[in-house]
Amino acid sequence: MAKTSSIEKNNRRRKMTAKFAKKRAELKSVVMDRETSPEVRIQAVMKLAQLPRNGAKVRIRNRCEVTGRPRAFYRKLKMSRLALRELGNQGMIPGLVKSSW
């Protein structure tokens, strides 16, 4: 089980990303547009730098929803390989059969 503080930090980052997503996208579109003047683009870069770092989507870490484990994460199931195996052995995941011989 991951530290509760790490899980909560990641949840705060998700909320902040959702909050600043629209503003960040607008500023990035201005920065990437080659048609705008350099002064306007520089101003947009400065405003983008003023936004909180945790508002960026790349700062979010994929974590298992069961254990909070950050590695060996299956995006489709939103859980780690260890949680997947444990729940699969218990028969909690439909269609998943653990092979044995």
From TrEMBL:
GO terms for molecular function: rRNA binding; structural constituent of ribosome. This is Small ribosomal subunit protein uS14. The keyword rRNA-binding applies. The gene is rpsN. It comes from the Bacteria. GO terms for cellular component: cytoplasm; small ribosomal subunit. It holds the Pfam family Ribosomal_S14. PANTHER family: 30S RIBOSOMAL PROTEIN S14, SMALL RIBOSOMAL SUBUNIT PROTEIN US14M. Keywords: Ribonucleoprotein, Ribosomal protein, RNA-binding, rRNA-binding. Belongs to the universal ribosomal protein uS14 family. Coiled coil: none annotated. Binds 16S rRNA, required for the assembly of 30S particles and may also be responsible for determining the conformation of the 16S rRNA at the A site. GO terms for biological process: translation. Part of the 30S ribosomal subunit. Contacts proteins S3 and S10. InterPro entries: Ribosomal_uS14 (IPR001209), Ribosomal_uS14_bac/plastid (IPR023036), Ribosomal_uS14_CS (IPR018271).
